[in-house]
Amino acid sequence: xxxxxSMLALATASPPLAAPADRAADTLVAFADRFDQxxxxxxxxxxxxxxxxxxxxxxxxxxxxxxxxxxxxxxAPDDRFEPIVLVDRTVTELGPDAxxxxxxxxxxxxxxxxxxxxxxxxxxxxxxxxxxxxxxxIQVTRMPNP
Length: 146
Prior knowledge:
Blueprint: H1 2-13, H2 24-40, H3 44-50, E1 51-58, E2 64-65, H4 67-75, E3 79-81, E4 87-93, E5 98-111, E6 114-129, E7 132-143
Parallel strand pairs: 1-7
Antiparallel strand pairs: 1-2, 3-5, 4-5, 5-6, 6-7
């Protein structure tokens, strides 16, 4: 009886067991949210970690660029960004280690002291590499401003 009581006490004092595995979309969306925040707050160190070295970045003009261009575009010293609202967000799971997160948004801010507003739709493709999510492909499509 003492053994049973001890086991019950241990079971109630122990933290609950973790779920077998997080759903890929849950951890993917959390990473996508942190990725968006790193861009808006100009966190170059976070972007360095979050972006794959072989990133394919297709900008709004259709030009193919890479990791350096992407990070420099978000961390330019004279640029400031306002908070964004994501519209029509999509999450497409491509398995436990890959997925695409996209949305439409209106990005506002200033660059070189001049205000700007740019409406676009984006698709960020993420892949888990060595256990960590990384942005591996980003596609931006400009849209007419409202």
